[in-house]
Structures are given as structure tokens and as C-alpha cells.
Amino acid sequence: NLLLKQIIETPRMCYILCPNQHIGVWRVGFMPQWIAREYLARRGGAKFTSDQIIPARCALLGYALKPIMVEGQTIGDWYLQVDKQPEVGEEAYDQGSEILTKFFHNQLVKFLEPDLLPPGKRIIDCCLSGGSLEDYSSLIENKAMFTEE
Question: Tens digits of per-residue pLDDT, 13-33?
Fold first, then answer.
């Protein structure tokens, strides 16, 4: 409830999910956080455009970036879209998505308590019912990190 309340009360704050240790099968340590921090800091308040992102194959993960340029170096889609890694592919990615979804389902039911804020219940219900990216996006009003341009 505390974290959810903070998210709801600060709609201009944007949150990102950065992997650590591994991206797909590749060991990367904390490099994704460092690159993301550098990239976002240099962009300031600039938003991503719809041609820079795509929906992730797993709705729980939101959006994935298309290849980006950071400090003159291109970060290819195989780092930003795990299903593009030759060692992973779409089939293994989808199997991993099922494992992640089952994990979320097992964990989230523990939070369905009477004192849970209504938006929290809607988020959990969305996950448990296999919600789409659009379903998740409609649950909390916020200033998105991207624009439709």
C-alpha cells in the first residue's frame, strides 16, 4: 500500500525495470542500470516516441526499447528484446514468460488482504486474469514516459 500510494500520488515520476546480472542468457552484471541512468539523465524529461519502443512479448514487462544510441555506441535489439537473442528465441522467451507469470500469480495472491487499496486490488486482478499491456496501462493515471508521436 505504501509504494502504491507513492506511485499514485506522484504521477510525473516514471519508473523503469532494469535487469541485473543477466539479460536473457547473457551475464551483464549491473551494466543495464548504469547505461539506463546515463541515457535517461542525458535525455532529461524527453519522452520516448512510439517508434522507439514496442510492447514486450510479456505484458508484465511493459515495453521494450528498439535499438538505441548511447555515447556513440548502438545497443542492439538483442540486448533490449531478449527474444531476439539467438540462444533464447521466441519459444524459450514465451516459456520464460509463463514461468514469470506463474511466479507473479503465486506471490500476488498473498497481497489480497482486506486493507489493500482498491487500485492495488485492480492491478492484482488484472495480473491474475492475464491482463494485456493496455489493461495495465489503464489502471493508474500517470504521465507516460513515451508519446504517440
Answer: 777 777 778 888 888 888 888
